[in-house]
Every structure is written in C-alpha cells, then in structure tokens.
Amino acid sequence: MRIFRNTLLTIVLLVAGTFLHYTLPQHDVVRVVNTYQERQDLGDWTRIFWANPDDQSGTLINRDVQFIQTVKKKTWLLGFFQRDSEKVMVYRNEDTGWSWPPYFKFDTASLQTEADDLRSTPEAPKWAVLTHYGWRLELFSAFPNAVAIKPIASPDMTIIPWFNIIFFIIIIALILFLRAMWMQFRERTIDPALEDTRDAWEKVDAGLDEKRGRLSRWWRSWTGR
Fold first, then answer.
1. Are residues 40 and 67 in the same domain?
2. What gap in Å lies between CA 52 and CA 68, rounded to an integer?
C-alpha cells in the first residue's frame, strides 16, 4: 500500500511540476537576430502548443504566426546562473487573450515592433531580457511564446524570477495550511470516530466470545466432553 501511495504521489508531483514548468514565466537573456511571419498548420494534436486567443482561431486549421529569432545565453540551475556559451532560440509571438495560460497578452504587434527595434549583429550586439512561457520542441515544431522583451545594458545580468519565487511560497504556505486543517480535522473528527468504531467492534467481539463460551459449556453439559 505504501509503495502504491508513493508511486501515485510521485506521478502527481511529476505531472504538476511539468505543468508549472511549461506555464510559469521564464526569462532569457537574448540578442535578437531576425523577426518574421510564417503560416502554420494547426490541424493535428500539436495544436496544444499554440495559443488559442479567440473563438475564431479555434476553428482555423492554419494561421499566420509571428516569430522572433534570437541568440540566447545558456544558463543552468533554472536560469539563476549564466554560462559563457550561447545557443539559437526561436520564439513565437502570439496573443493569449483571455484563454490559458492567463497572461492576458494582447500586444503581439507592439512586441514584434520592439523586437524588430532590438535586432543587432555579433559585432554590435544589443541584449535584452525576453520573458516567455512554454518549451522549444523541435520534433513537434513547438516554440515558447514570447510575452515581453526589455533591453538591458549587459548580457551578464542576473535575473531573479520573483514571480515564480512568490508563487511557490504561496503554494507551499497553502499546502501547509491545508495540511494543518486536515490534521486538526482528523484529530477532532476522524480519530474519535475510528476509536468509537474500534470500541464497538471490541464489544461485539466480546459478546460473540461470551456466546461461544456459553454454547461450548452447554454442549459439554450434554455430551460430557
């Protein structure tokens, strides 16, 4: 039973962690190389990796999507520390509207203009912090969705994800609060009920033992054994 419970808990944590990693905002230090627009087919299951900002887009099998091509600074430890190396990263630029995830993004055109203004070359680089959510999955042609972009003076800037930190603090506090409520409820309600049930079963067992004893004595009185 304990193995099953631990396995189920591990699966739940993995699913929740994967969901949060995809949904929560991430920050990359990038240099914009190019921006472009391309028509994308949305007719298969990979549609889940694209935004669904309005009712009409839910019925279209393809649409034009804007992209931002960048050179990204590699990081490790969830982006807290930068590495000296770089890699290519392409972001899509789509409105999220009122749908999930709740970024309420309606400024795709403005963001594309800002990215255009930050285009640069390796000889004269312009660095920026690009906020996004999602993953880059080349096998499924999935791209992270850019949410905001802000120029910075140096690519060595350390970015602290305050939103994510506060979010996890609230989640942990909520879990601890619910756990305390459950423990209190269990101590006041469930444990006494179980104790009463246990006492009732013990009384029933004692009564049955007494009846079996009487029946055994009666049988011996008639049979002599």
1. yes
2. 19
| Domain coverage including residue 167 | 161-225
154-207, pLDDT tens digit by residue? 888 888 889 999 999 999 999 999 988 888 887 787 767 667 677 667 666 666
Query: 122 in the Ramachandran plot: left (φ > 0), alpha (ψ -120 to 50) or beta?
Result: alpha
**Cα separation of 131 and 200, whole Å?**
62
> Are the C-beta atoms of 62 and 70 separated by less than 8 Å?
no
The CA-based dihedral angle spanning residues 112, 116, 118, 119, taken in that order and rounded to the nearest 10 degrees: 130
Residue from 116, 121, 29 nearest 72 by CA: 29
**Number of structural domains found in the chain:** 2
* Residue-level pLDDT at 142: 92
Q: What are phi and psi of 122, to 5 degrees?
A: -60, -30
**Whole-structure pTM over 0.85, yes or no?**
no
Q: In terms of domains, do 117 and 197 share one?
A: no
Each residue's pLDDT tens digit, 144-155: 999 999 999 988
- What DSSP string describes 183-222? HHHIIIIIHHHHHHHHHHHHHHHHHHHHHHHHHHHHHHHH
